[in-house]
Amino acid sequence: MRKPKVIVTRRWPAEVEARLQDLYDVQLNAGDRPMTGAELQEALRGADALLPTVSDKITAEVLSAEPLRTKILGNFGVGFNHIDIAAAKGLDLVVTNTPDVLTDCTADLAMTLLLMIARRAGEGERHVRTKAWTGWRPTHMIGTKITGKTLGLVGFGRIARAVATRAHHGFGMKILFHDPYPPPKEAAESVKAQACATVEEVLEQADFVSIHCPGGQETRHLINAGRLKRMKATAILINTARGDVVDEQALAAGLKSGTIAGAGLDVYESEPRVTEELLTMENVVLFPHLGSATRETRVAMGMRVLENLEAFFAGEPPRDRVA
Ligand code: DGY
């Protein structure tokens, strides 16, 4: 029987690519160069399955490629706001993602940002490397204590809950959250988390605010100049979700004027471009979208795409269908 044709848009971990080669007539991207809109359209015309990731903008225009051969978009990643889901549904395309397997590592990274910014770790490291350090002194590079402080979560899905577990059980933090979709009671109880009716309520009370809602039109600039002003002047904002949830210009202005004390960012509005002003600020820690970037997790993400594909081509419902 003819193997389905599968196109992978970026380079994947070697063991997952090897498995893809066993199962499918696969086109890999050894050079890892992002595909253009025209190349994505060519792929949609030529393959039964397209396996994109966050760096591919699968817009309605891209999806208008004709004749469309692709039947499934097996996304490598949990977030899928780079795919026009309405357009995909309109074309009867199945879309899947990779939840669960990246929860722990993304939560670890959110905690890394929280710890680094609170304890001025990036700044301190630069201090040592540039040989500016003159030795220990009682008033040198003073940060802020984490243990016992209040962590506010915007969204209380899988990753937020994993962050809450680490923060509450590891650092004795008090947990607040706002989520328009109420979580199971046990999820909140296990970290003694208190639900807030509004985002503002979280922002006003929290010492650290960590964003964990999906990106896209509904949450675009949820954290804007007005909402940043609701935060404590000593507060720190962490974003490992999607860049467009935070108005990056407003954040840079707020950090500069002292509206809030600091920020730890793993995601940006126009990746890989970062608002120039942020690059020069000491009170921010900036990562290049590393949330799920561990060997174990990236392999697990790829294998999860494969699981979804195998189900689809066997005529069964894929486990992680989002459209
Ligand atoms: C995710 O899984 O959503 C990561 O941010 C990469 O897309």
Tell me the major beta sheet: 7 strands, parallel
Structural domains: how many: 2
- Which ligands occur here? (2R)-2,3-dihydroxypropanoic acid
Mean pLDDT: 98
The CATH class label of the largest domain is Alpha Beta
Low-confidence stretches: none
Strand content: 5-15%
N- and C-termini, Cα separation: 28 Å
SS-derived structural category: alpha/beta
Counting H and I runs of at least 4 residues, what is the number of helices? Answer: 13
Strand arrangement within the widest β-sheet reads: 8-7-6-9-10-11-12
**Based on the structure given, which CATH architecture of the largest domain is correct?**
3-Layer(aba) Sandwich
**Could you tell me the number of beta strands?**
12
Helix content: 25-40%
Order of helices and strands: EHEHEHEHEHHEHEHEHEHEHEHEH
Shape label = globular
CATH homologous superfamily placement of the largest domain: NAD(P)-binding Rossmann-like Domain
